[in-house]
């Protein structure tokens, strides 16, 4: 569903936010990306979403090479194939929960009643049911808890039948119990709907829900663990943070 092949992104000459990163994310797989601040996680998400273009290398979504697409085709692919969930949810307060979920379909111009997959309202209701909130359709987002709002954001990301879900710190603002709900939902969408999920997180407890966790250091992939436990993740993160020996850093003044 998502393939990065030797992707690099240089913002300034000689400074690479992403450095020769390759990974392959098939349908139904849940991947967590970890790394300290500035290691390139957001840049990786932006390249995967087609919001940023790599300096070199190839990004493929559902087999389509993004570099070959004209802007309109890229916008269409992003809209139809990629769902995005961030910490700041961007739910519109004036719309009901159902209207928020249906919004990507309405913006894409889905005709009421005639669109493939059903009318926007019907598809939004199905997406809301899939995230466990079928009876909150008519509420405004402000009446929902943080976790429920995050689930609405997941429903909105998946309503187009995207297939690839990119999540940027989706549990960063949630308490552990609510975070658990949202992570269980991401796991469920991968297992039962076959969505490929790529989640950036700083939290080892969140990464534990993924099939695989990869670690970025200064733009490079420096580690990869299959279904790791929290302790293993912390060890890997600790290894990454171990400061270089003093003689390599120069004298401490
Ligand atoms: N638009 C930009 N212009 C110049 N440099 C950038 C730009 N965006 C990111 N960078 C640099 O690229 C590197 C990677 O940044 P990125 O935001 O991808 O890291 P991150 O791992 O997501 O960090 P955080 O966890 O703090 O969000 C950093 O050194 C950052 O300063």
UniProtKB/TrEMBL annotation:
Molecular function terms, GO-annotated: ATP binding
Keywords: ATP-binding, Nucleotide-binding, Transport
Stored Pfam families: ABC_tran
Claim: Nucleotide-binding is one of the keywords in the record: yes
SUPFAM superfamilies, per database record: P-loop containing nucleoside triphosphate hydrolases
Domain ABC transporter: 2-243
InterPro entries per UniProt: AAA+_ATPase, ABC_transporter-like_ATP-bd, ABC_transporter-like_CS, ABC_transpr_LolD-like, MacB-like_ATP-bd, P-loop_NTPase
Residue ranges of the region described as Disordered: 234-253
SMART domains: AAA
Transport is among the record's keywords: yes
Protein name as annotated: ABC transporter ATP-binding protein
């Amino acid at each position: 569903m998502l393939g990065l092949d030797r992707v690099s992104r240089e913002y300034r000459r000689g400074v690479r936010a992403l450095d020769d990163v390759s990974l392959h994310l098939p349908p139904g797989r849940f991947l967590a990306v970890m790394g300290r601040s500035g290691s390139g996680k957001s840049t990786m998400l932006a390249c995967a979403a087609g919001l940023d273009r790599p300096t070199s290398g190839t990004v493929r979504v559902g087999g389509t090479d993004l570099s070959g697409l004209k802007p309109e085709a890229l916008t269409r692919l992003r809209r139809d194939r990629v769902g995005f969930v961030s910490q700041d949810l961007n739910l519109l307060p004036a719309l009901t929960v159902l209207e928020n979920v249906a919004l990507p379909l309405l913006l894409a111009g889905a005709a009421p009643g005639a669109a493939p997959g059903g009318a926007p309202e019907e598809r939004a209701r199905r997406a809301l049911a899939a995230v466990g909130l079928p009876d909150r359709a008519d509420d405004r987002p402000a009446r929902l808890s943080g976790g429920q709002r995050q689930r609405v954001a997941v429903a909105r990301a998946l309503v187009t039948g995207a297939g690839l879900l990119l999540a940027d710190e989706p549990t960063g603002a949630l308490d552990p119990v609510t975070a658990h709900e949202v992570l269980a939902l991401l796991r469920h969408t991968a297992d039962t709907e076959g969505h490929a999920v790529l989640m950036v997180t700083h939290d080892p407890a969140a990464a534990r829900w993924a099939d695989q966790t990869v670690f970025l250091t200064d733009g490079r992939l420096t580690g990869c663990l299959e279904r790791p436990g929290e302790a293993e993740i912390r060890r890997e993160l600790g290894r990454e943070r171990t400061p270089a020996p003093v003689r390599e850093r120069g004298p401490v003044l």
